[in-house]
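Colleagues,

Please find the record for the four-part complex below.
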Amino acid sequence: MPFDFVRSPYALLQDMVGPTPYDGVLKEYEAWWEQEGRAISDAVDRAQTPWVRMFDTAGKRVDEILYPPDYRRMLKQGYRSGVLWRAFRDQTLLPSFLLLYLTSFYDCGLSCPYTVSLSTVLPLSKYGDAAIKERFLPNLLREDDAVWQGATWMTEIKGGSDLGANVETVAVPQGDAWQLTGDKYFASNAGAELAVAAARPKGAPAGVRGLALFLVPRWRRSGELNYTIRRLKDKIATRSVPTGEIELRDSEAYLLGSAEEGIYLILEVLNVSRISNSLGSVALAQRAIADALSFAESRVAFGRRIVEHPMLRTQFDERVRDLRAAFALAWEASRLLNEVWQERRPYSDRYHLFRLLAHLAKYWTAEFAVQTAKWCMEVHGGLGVLAEFRVERWLREAMILAIWEGTAHRQLLDGLEVMERKQAHHTLLQYLAPASGAPEVREIVEAIDAHLKLPIEERERTWEPIGTRFAKVTAEALLQKMPVQKTSAS
Amino acid sequence: MPFDFVRSPYALLQDMVGPTPYDGVLKEYEAWWEQEGRAISDAVDRAQTPWVRMFDTAGKRVDEILYPPDYRRMLKQGYRSGVLWRAFRDQTLLPSFLLLYLTSFYDCGLSCPYTVSLSTVLPLSKYGDAAIKERFLPNLLREDDAVWQGATWMTEIKGGSDLGANVETVAVPQGDAWQLTGDKYFASNAGAELAVAAARPKGAPAGVRGLALFLVPRWRRSGELNYTIRRLKDKIATRSVPTGEIELRDSEAYLLGSAEEGIYLILEVLNVSRISNSLGSVALAQRAIADALSFAESRVAFGRRIVEHPMLRTQFDERVRDLRAAFALAWEASRLLNEVWQERRPYSDRYHLFRLLAHLAKYWTAEFAVQTAKWCMEVHGGLGVLAEFRVERWLREAMILAIWEGTAHRQLLDGLEVMERKQAHHTLLQYLAPASGAPEVREIVEAIDAHLKLPIEERERTWEPIGTRFAKVTAEALLQKMPVQKTSAS
Amino acid sequence: MPFDFVRSPYALLQDMVGPTPYDGVLKEYEAWWEQEGRAISDAVDRAQTPWVRMFDTAGKRVDEILYPPDYRRMLKQGYRSGVLWRAFRDQTLLPSFLLLYLTSFYDCGLSCPYTVSLSTVLPLSKYGDAAIKERFLPNLLREDDAVWQGATWMTEIKGGSDLGANVETVAVPQGDAWQLTGDKYFASNAGAELAVAAARPKGAPAGVRGLALFLVPRWRRSGELNYTIRRLKDKIATRSVPTGEIELRDSEAYLLGSAEEGIYLILEVLNVSRISNSLGSVALAQRAIADALSFAESRVAFGRRIVEHPMLRTQFDERVRDLRAAFALAWEASRLLNEVWQERRPYSDRYHLFRLLAHLAKYWTAEFAVQTAKWCMEVHGGLGVLAEFRVERWLREAMILAIWEGTAHRQLLDGLEVMERKQAHHTLLQYLAPASGAPEVREIVEAIDAHLKLPIEERERTWEPIGTRFAKVTAEALLQKMPVQKTSAS
Amino acid sequence: MPFDFVRSPYALLQDMVGPTPYDGVLKEYEAWWEQEGRAISDAVDRAQTPWVRMFDTAGKRVDEILYPPDYRRMLKQGYRSGVLWRAFRDQTLLPSFLLLYLTSFYDCGLSCPYTVSLSTVLPLSKYGDAAIKERFLPNLLREDDAVWQGATWMTEIKGGSDLGANVETVAVPQGDAWQLTGDKYFASNAGAELAVAAARPKGAPAGVRGLALFLVPRWRRSGELNYTIRRLKDKIATRSVPTGEIELRDSEAYLLGSAEEGIYLILEVLNVSRISNSLGSVALAQRAIADALSFAESRVAFGRRIVEHPMLRTQFDERVRDLRAAFALAWEASRLLNEVWQERRPYSDRYHLFRLLAHLAKYWTAEFAVQTAKWCMEVHGGLGVLAEFRVERWLREAMILAIWEGTAHRQLLDGLEVMERKQAHHTLLQYLAPASGAPEVREIVEAIDAHLKLPIEERERTWEPIGTRFAKVTAEALLQKMPVQKTSAS
């Protein structure tokens, strides 16, 4: 079939990115997933929300998260393969991106612990003082199974989009460190050995300007638990990452960077999550197409395999074309992050271009993942809605990708803002100049210029169709800009 | 709010259909749901697939389906309200349609038992001989809790779209009746006292022409079980209807109509399901909008309730407008079914118009339900993906509505066929003539005429975008044709 | 059959207690259970640990416990029937005991909310000052469904037997009330509107002497939650009562009685629980025998119903005889509680006799329930270990009865203590004098006198077989003392 | 502690059996369990009944049993360690017994697949003709992970004790083989590659004399499934073995031995199960004591660790003493089976002695396991009834051991029969002659002689207390006969 490559995330990466120094690692990692990981991931999804063992039999609070034993093997496989340590050894995020893509094809929830660990390592290495780095960084960069995990805890009970209003966790200085008290409501990778958390130093101004970013280890220096897990969230998917509610009570913490610039650090942390979410969404869409393809090749109706039915065949062609465009968008955003993540304020135009692409990518790829997962279920017909065949899993997973790290609504408006303030759409136009897709981009950039002149309420009220088209056109233009693809050329 | 009516299915019916003789019943039924039914429905969904008690302690096969006890109360509420008996007392399907809409707002899975019971009653009353009618019909039309339920069992393991190839159940004459042997793979309302089932009389030709429709009671005349339930399907939603795999083994059965015309009877049964599915999809979309509205009114971000955020406000406006159009499409199709369901071959143009609208409605309303349920989750942000808040339920339910009774793919192609063979799109144009939406319909009808001239493979390959636009335009035109709406006028 | 009465708790009460003014109520209550309650209880057990909805969608902490809706109907049935209010209207605990027995035959977990409500009402009415009684008591004695529930929260994480060492909850005076801070680890009827809780006033001595008993309402005077539920315990049975971990954080509370006598109030609360546990154990054993009987009457092996197999028939005879004796023990203890519960220190000999019987009854009846439930499973053979047939439920329930309110170990030692300190075994001997079983009791009382002369370590080390025999002999002697039984006479 | 050895099944075997050639294997196997197996076993128990995937996406019946992936690793560990192949390589069942004991300490359900595989291998090797042995035996004796599993399917829906009346599966000769049709209701190790099944050849007499034993492979010679799994049983424990309902429909089968002697073959199969059940029960009791010990050493009440409380300390002493006696009984029965299993009719006195001991051991050890598991829960107090701490698991497991392979009732009566017919109690007396416990045995043997003179009904009616005492005395006498125990000597 012309789209045989869709069955293998490694093949897609080869096709779209070309050879990299990590091909051996990726091949081996994919082989592990095919032989062992798939079944483990399936079992973890079935087992639903894991338990927390809050107390041991002696009555001591322990907050152990109880997964089936295989889970730990699956989790460690990515760390060992280098999703964290390679980035630091090789001074490039590329291996992390490649491994995240591959992971997400098999279990997009599992890429969350890797992502938040990366999102802990990056600010720690960039903003941590020497003592803190020396104390914590080596644990996160271990190549063996004793590696620590990171976590990023921002959102509180009143919602994650308006952090300025909703972060009520307070930080109080205490000797050379701080003490944090508050509740984190969507805390990914609950149980991590080291988290970064948003909090407001006592006396700091209201709103986002008063927020700062802190490191919070799992264990106090005294050896006791430094935070407790109130409960794990009963999510409909991404069950490979334990998301919990965290209680910080005079929890030991370490300020990263300066308190005044805290909000920028927080936004930099979100940059990584958005990129990872974009790569994960594309990988998930690829998986859904791959599963639909296998089914359509084996199912017969009206005398032929349904993959040969003309309307369905058209749908496959279009899905695969859109998959490539979505990949191009996510990948370019990733490449830019790799370029700019070490920048400090004032940020360059390149950084603002990255931000724009990150918003477009987060929005567009998740939407594509949801629609593709839905379509995959429809291709399976009645089997698609049976828990037995697990096809419905991809839609559950995709819905979380669409909501985590900011919904479409948020991405569209934040993208609008970076264009208004930084003219990032013009930077994009220059960036794309050689791409054959540019004319369409040029046209929409002009429409955006006009749109930006509207009063704010109306600007937001009527933005969605333009923003959507902008994302689509950008993705297609970026696809043109990618190196020649062997497979599609064949 | 201008769209306050969206919170009540009764209010929407008032608004769109106007007063009917059933307003008292509907009000009471809605009140019951608000007071008791919602919590029961929620508990049934949580409890997931019910158990089958296959054997009693004495080792006798009994195949009881074990729901929480409240389930039965919920189930009987609709029968008592008249979802079946009113249609026969008043000689109109209108009360059934109204009650199905209202049921589906609260539990679209529950409308399945009512629908398949109706789909059993209709062919029985239309095609059954006197003895059969006398024996079975009164049981299904009882107004008390001893009412029997019906069921419609067509699909077998190899799939439901190509019945001609995939129905392997065989019927053998036996005295004044028949014996059926085969396995039904998606058997809605497993455990029903009386089912209609597709089977092929021994010696009948291959393909759809050889199929006939039979009545299959739960109990043999000897008092023994007449069919067994191999297992219930572990569906992701519509848990208010037990869908099972049924084993027919020399099961007593009664032929409906003539064996030669069996396929037409089968298609007539599907007519009812498609209409009910369309009404249910609209009601589900209304529910999702209503839930999104409640949340958006209570959640605050950036200093105001999110319902006041301009982009979200636009989305509400558009969803509600589309809800009305989707309702208009489903309702017109329902009205037509009420007109034509007693027709026999050769069918009138009116019947073919109905068929076209039924395909468009099944396709378009389910798609709308899915997209609206997805959007409702996104409006809820992170809470949307937690099992705790049950918002994710609507997407699970909607996916089943989109797949049951034929996916989009099937509806689009079957709609195409009825236009090719019966020129039903021209009948539609005439039907719509007075409607202000007609110009756009006229335009697309011309496009269809051109499209129908393409060779079959290409015709199907490129049909989807035209078919989609046709459904949308038709819905909007039908909305124009509906009586003045009080609410939207206010 | 000679033991037909075993199928009905009402019949057993008639047989053992004779007519009471509550026969009408009891008959009606039993009829409700047979018609509706059994299925609800079964569904609640299946549904396992209920959910707690900790937060509403607006982010407000609410701690609602989510049972299937029928649960509330089942729960209210007992309150309406008068398990609380009749005791106060009629100034006798008799109706409470009768209703608890009957409840426990059907759902021994459900008798827990009734018991702990009673255990809240009694100390409140006995020790509460006028204002407190006026404020709270009427809510608990309502005859309609707005009735409040009570709860008794003593145990903390380090264990329930050594309260003196393990209660770490601290009470601090605050205006006319107190503030409690601490964690209760096994909190029955979590979510109750009013609880009694053990706490140590700040500055009070260590050990049991420093404990006091407080009333803790669910809601603060400000309308906010006064305590939170950390989680519900995942118990293997008694799922009809939500048992949770409670967090008291500056929770408003009201002292009952004087702080100095707190430990006596706590022990008086436990008196009620032990009695209820004893009645519940006997009722559960009756249920297990009834289920075994039904099965043994329907199952055939080696050519006859297994109830006719000689060895099994002997087992039935013995179980029923032991059931009567266990009932006699539990009932006499109950009757005595009714006599003495209003006593204050210094307690009478009658009170100490009650304490002795309460320990013997708690121990012996629970042991009998466990062994009978085990035997019932064995009678069912393979079906006994299938979740499907629910026979295994009785063993799960019985194990909780054996452990709640103090294990056998605790009851045996506490019984030993009341004999050593108060010579309660001699009071018992006098009490039994007319009973034909007395000679055996006399003999064992002498053995106990000898045993009490042993050094403490040895006394405890070798006590179990004597204590066990003492319980058995006492039960049989009390059975002799009961009024003539119609059924066994027939 | 004097009973430290109780924490390790290997230590107990060393202590009771002394060194064997398998010590290295056993040590390694125990180490694996401690490092990996415990967590897997726990996860399997939590996951409850596994799924059966009945059909693949292409609609083909496949009946795959879906365990978490780790399950297979756990299962294969025992086969690799030699629970089957060593017995054949070394011509002794000793290694099988040792490995079964050790397995059962960690997961007594898992010893079921090993046992039924052994119960398939033994009759196949003893009674199979050359062609059958050559075809099947090597698959079952493989030392790698491609090893086949066996299964033993006797019981049908009407019960397992009266096979003569209840086996309704019919066997019809077909070429060089047979075809079986019927339903097996408790089919352990459903999904096994090769089962032995009881069936009645068409035309054979009614009752047990008409039964024969057949080999039933999973796959027909054509490659299709040879039997189907109707469903897996939802058992309360032993979740490490999939127990199902099996549908045999013209299933290919091979007669073992002669049809006339079938019932003897069936009884020989049950011999192995009873022995394994006895060893498993002792191992389970050891586990429960070990867990109680760990808890009692860590929990403090009234100022000291509860293991030091005098009454509890006595209980530990007695449990450990009884554990040894129970082991002695199970082990002697095992040793005898190793001696006699190759005997054919007419059987020797040694064989009948084995049968008697097997009945006593099955009964007594299971009873001991149940009571010990119950006690272990009580030692844990409230934690004992929480699913979280898994202590309650041992009681669930023990109840299955008490019921599988015949309840106490059955064992007591069958033991009585072998004494009546074969005077096996006298053989036992001779066997025990040198043991110091013999006087008590002699006394009870005389009582039995008297008892055997009673009319049959009365003999059975009053047998239980004598039979119970006989089992206890025999166990203690056998303990005396065992070689000196190092541990108890210290």
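The mean pLDDT of chain C is 95.

Comments are welcome before we finalize the supplementary table.
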